[in-house]
Write a structure and sequence with these properties.
mainly alpha, two-stranded antiparallel sheet, single chain, Arp2/3 complex 21 kDa subunit ARPC3, 2% strand, 2 strands
């Protein structure tokens, strides 16, 4: 099975070479996550802001598939590391990356691969099954983010309080939104 973005791209630009298609999709995915990262709500009780990034990661991964999705997140991180102001709130650079958000950024790449892999098996095409890939992706992001926060804060309890609990409701909303958006997009495509 294929995922949504390559299907649409191939229908729209049938004569484009596959390497150009893949490069374009990876870049567009990174741009979407960068755009959604600017939707940022700082929370006074945690060093990690509430952003639209995770929603972008889930959508990009399901739309692009495992390899393109992971490559897109790696490109996003690399561009931010090299100084483009694309992280949450326009932040950039290695100093930002090694702060509280490093674990989440690593989680983006891993989650994109897994969500994309599940999407390549058609799980994002039906409302009945689409929640699974997005739930798994969100859990991967949390595990990586909280693990890094545990190292920084020196306590799992503090890491859970700062990097998980404040985000559960918002991420549940993003997860459901993604689980509704992808099946709806596939119905539109068909």
């Amino acid at each position: 099975m294929t995922t949504l973005a390559p299907t649409l791209y191939t229908r729209s630009f049938p004569r484009t070479s596959s390497w150009l298609r893949d490069l374009s999709l990876v870049a567009l995915g990174a741009a979407l996550v960068a755009l959604l990262a600017q939707v940022r709500i700082p929370l006074p009780f945690t060093p990690v802001p509430l952003t639209g990034q995770t929603f972008g990661v889930l959508l990009v991964a399901a739309a692009l598939g495992s390899k393109r999705g992971a490559a897109s997140m790696a490109l996003y991180i690399a561009l931010g590391a090299f100084g483009l102001p694309i992280f949450a709130g326009g932040a950039a650079g290695l100093s930002y990356m090694t702060g509280a958000t490093l674990g989440y950024l690593i989680g983006f790449v891993l989650a994109a691969y897994v969500v994309g892999w599940l999407a390549e098996r058609g799980l994002e095409r039906s409302v009945r099954t689409s929640l699974l890939p997005f739930l798994v992706g969100t859990l991967i992001i949390y595990v990586c983010g909280v693990a890094w926060l545990t190292v920084l804060l020196g306590s799992l309890t503090k890491a859970l309080a700062a990097g998980l609990v404040p985000f559960l409701i918002g991420d549940a909303i993003k997860l459901v939104a993604a689980a509704l958006a992808l099946p709806a997009a596939w119905k539109f495509v068909k």
